[in-house]
Amino acid sequence: MIYVIGIGPGSYETMTHEAISAIENSDVIVGYKTYINLIEDLINGKEIVSNGMKQEIDRVKKAIEISKTGKIVSVISSGDAGVYGMAGLVLEMSEDEDVRVISGVTASTAAASVLGAPLMHDFCHISLSDLLTPLELIYKRVELASEGDFVICLYNPKSNGRPHYLEKAFDIMKKYKNSSTPVGIVKNATRENQEVHICTLDTINYELVDMLSIVIVGNSSTYIKDGKIITRRGYQL
Amino acid sequence: MIYVIGIGPGSYETMTHEAISAIENSDVIVGYKTYINLIEDLINGKEIVSNGMKQEIDRVKKAIEISKTGKIVSVISSGDAGVYGMAGLVLEMSEDEDVRVISGVTASTAAASVLGAPLMHDFCHISLSDLLTPLELIYKRVELASEGDFVICLYNPKSNGRPHYLEKAFDIMKKYKNSSTPVGIVKNATRENQEVHICTLDTINYELVDMLSIVIVGNSSTYIKDGKIITRRGYQL
């Protein structure tokens, strides 16, 4: 049996009961070491298999091997395991194992909750990581999403290897979105060391964004009120 | 004090600790009656203010009035309160009340977890309800999202007042997406009476979709394996 579990933003408080129960019922916990550390109190005493970034395939192989011995394995992802998480790889690579995906609060909605209510209307998720996706396709999606006046959530907005992709994405957005469109940057949403910055397409300081940030860019109905970003749904008040 | 709480898909098991604690600490629970019913065990004995669909503004007015008397109020939404939920209206209408948004597992990721792993790559949310959004803008978004090869999650895919919007949206998608693209329909994800249907753009039976369904349409890397929908992230296996 393999559970693929979204642990949410990273604190016990923001996990679901279902996720906690599944972890408690597991013999072995498999995950990226940063995420393992987030839940160390919960997994105290269990067998842990952790490794680093870019070792996802190896991690899933190990989980499947262990599951074949009859042990219950939990593969953990931060946020929701089904959103750019481990659920896909586990299902792709599994043979006849029983796999169950358990949802968690995903990074974009956790970030949104501390910014206010930016996701009240149609929105999309775009990852700026080109490790597995051609860069032209990423920019094409940024362009089409901007043309469609979607609220845009950027995952993996920056890393050492690609410091300028975010700036380029913003240049594309400015062709369609007003330069005063609100932008929220959230690091460590709802957990220790949370950082929140609210700015606009024109006033963003790219230095404030790192690999762990979520960047949310509003649509034409988004505004800032008392330090919160709100996207109007369209109710006549 | 006003909490705006996402209760997740609708069972105690899929709520976060934070959401449960906030509800337990509240004097009054305000919500759409269908959602109030989902958590009735948890709110037993508390003061309840519930009303029907399309009465959102009235509901928020009441929540603000009650909060002014010094009581702690929880306004509840299903899924995540910040995704087409009540967070926006509460923040728009509040004056100097302390408002805190508490995330939950949103409908699309709950639906995705029972379908397999369809949201492993860039995706968007589009509501087909034209109560507050011009229909042309909705179709424009469907078109641009399809052109961008996004996975598409349709919220409010159907109601009595608009039985044909879904079919029209599918016609638009077929201009860009292969007719064999996997489609998942989920009703009551992860709760009682859950229904899951897996089909393709070409084989969908529109009769299976109702107002409470979430419809997820894959991208060009989405496939079906052992009854699960999986979108490849791009790993070389």
Automatic annotation (TrEMBL), chains A, B:
GO terms for biological process: methylation. InterPro entries: 4pyrrol_Mease, 4pyrrol_Methylase_sf, 4pyrrole_Mease_sub1, 4pyrrole_Mease_sub2, Cbl_synth_CobJ/CibH_dom, Precorrin_MeTrfase. Pfam families: TP_methylase. Residues 1-204 form the Tetrapyrrole methylase domain. Keywords: Cobalamin biosynthesis, Methyltransferase, S-adenosyl-L-methionine, Transferase. GO terms for molecular function: precorrin-3B C17-methyltransferase activity. It is an enzyme of class 2 (transferase). Its EC number is 2.1.1.131. Pathway: Cofactor biosynthesis; adenosylcobalamin biosynthesis. The keyword Transferase applies. Gene3D superfamilies: Cobalt-precorrin-4 Transmethylase, Domain 1, Methyltransferase, Cobalt-precorrin-4 Transmethylase, Domain 2. PANTHER family: COBALT-FACTOR III C(17)-METHYLTRANSFERASE-RELATED (PTHR47036:SF1). This is Precorrin-3B C17-methyltransferase. It comes from Sedimentibacter acidaminivorans. The lineage of its organism: Bacteria, Bacillati, Bacillota, Tissierellia, Sedimentibacter.
